[in-house]
Amino acid sequence: MSKMHLVAYLKTGPTASFASGWRHPSATLDDLFEPARFEYMAKLLEDARFDAGFFADGLGIPDVYRNTFADYVGRGGQVSLLDPMTVLPIMARVTSRLGLGATLATTFHNPYYLARGLASLDHLSKGRVAWNVVTGSHNAEARNHGFDAMPDKNMRYERAEDVLAACAALWDCWDEDALVLDRESGVYADTSKIRYADYKGPYVSTRGPMSMPRSPQGRPVILQAGSSPRGRDFAAKWAEMVFCSPATKEACLEFREDMVKRLRAHGRAPEECVILPSLSVVVGETESIAIEKKEFLESIVDPELVLASNSALLGVDLSDVESPEAADQGAGSAGVQGSRDRMAQRMKAEGISYAQAARKPRGLIAGTPAMIADIMEDWFRSGACDGFVLPPAVFPLTYEDFGRMVVPELQKRGVFRREYAGRTLRENLRNPG
Fold it and tell me: What is the pTM of this model?
């Protein structure tokens, strides 16, 4: 029987995708800049046999809502308080199997910088690195890098294609056995096995070779979350993991069916790319405890932060926009298509207006371990997905509860690994145990 994959959605800050999660009494706030926080995070996920954890990241503080960053950062939105590339080596040091993912934007970085950093991490982790490829989503990021606004989405994806092709050329500059280190002969490296990249594309060029030898995986596992038609096609060409955020199982089935067609059009088998929808859970020892936990979480949500967070995701100021048409027009090239899709699906599923949906925090599924496992197993066995991306409503409580209560239930049902089958992230994706 095949088994599902689990990936954790992480932030270098106390709030992930659930607004105001940092206000929960169990959320740790005194260790935000302590290496021990990230060591604990990594060991917690590896003990629960997660495939990987990846850090969602942005290169600025969104100032979409009311044309200021005051509500977003002042009330505790999804802000990266540290560069994830600095904490991933800390996490690699205390684990041996957990995949480790960084979010890096092709719009704002050149390929040599990207290829170099990711190859270094792949060496240090012995082959466990993933790259969540993004093109940027809000204008604050663009302005931090010399643009007046986000470039056109099609241009961003064209550049992303170019950057990935350049990175691939750089990663292939060294053969596996090019580094010799033979003291007696004095041969440090066999230069016949090292070559220039000599890559020239429409947006970027790089000569190479990299100074980093070929890493254990050769190249990182590519994770992608594009939901627009252009983003899906990009994922079908490059990605090995696709992170999506449909609001219903039916929407996920439609997404999966569309991705399979696109993968085949690129000459790839469907099993070469795992589909991982987002699932936010609250686990309780009984159903009533779970519901009480969920209600408490919802009671500490700051409504202004919800609007500020959703404004950032949609790329438009929701303080004066109350229809999807006005939102799309106002967003221009900013915003995340997956968030727009999720909003539309939620409106339909719950029979609510756009204005109501815009004011709702991320939906939480509350239940006992068996109830949560029932939902996950149903989605998985129905073919809607290959596993899930799990954000924490509260860090570290969500992962502590999930690892202690839900993982054993999934293992008992035979749908999740008891041990890792491989050493590298790619091996564990191909063989989930």
Answer: 0.93
Locate tokens 């021990």: which residue? Answer: 36
Domain ranges of the chain: 5-174+201-430
Answer whether residue 300 shows pLDDT above 90.
yes
DSSP strands (E only) in 113-261: 129-134, 179-182, 187-189, 199-200, 205-206, 221-224, 241-244
Annotated ligand binding at 65? The verdict is no
Q: Of 257-266, 323-332, 395-404, give the lowest mean pLDDT range.
A: 323-332
Lookup result for tokens 């929808």: 277
DSSP conformational letter for 103: E
Whole-number average pLDDT of the chain: 93
Residue type, 351: G
Q: How far apart are CA 329 and CA 340, in angstroms?
A: 12
Task: Look at the domain 5-174+201-430 and name its fold.
Answer: TIM Barrel (3.20.20)
The answer to whether the CB of 24 falls within 8 A of the CB of 276 is no
Say which DSSP state 363 is in.
P
Q: pLDDT tens, 41-70?
A: 999 999 999 999 999 999 999 998 999 999
Backbone angles phi, psi at 388, to 5 degrees: -145, 150
Q: What is the pLDDT of residues 249-262, one digit of tens each?
A: 999 999 999 999 99
Asked if residue 102 lies in contact with residue 398, where contact means CB atoms within 8 angstroms, the answer is no
CB proximity list for 102: less than 8 A, separation 6 or greater? 54, 55, 57, 84, 85, 88, 117, 118, 121, 129, 130, 131, 132
The response to whether 319 counts as a known ligand-binding position is: no
Q: What is the mean pLDDT of residues 409-419?
A: 98
Q: What is the pLDDT of residue 329?
A: 62
The answer to whether 157 is a known ligand-binding residue is: yes
Q: Is 26 annotated as a binding residue?
A: no
- The answer to whether 199 is a known ligand-binding residue is no
Q: How many Cβ atoms sit within 10 Å of the Cβ of residue 193?
A: 16
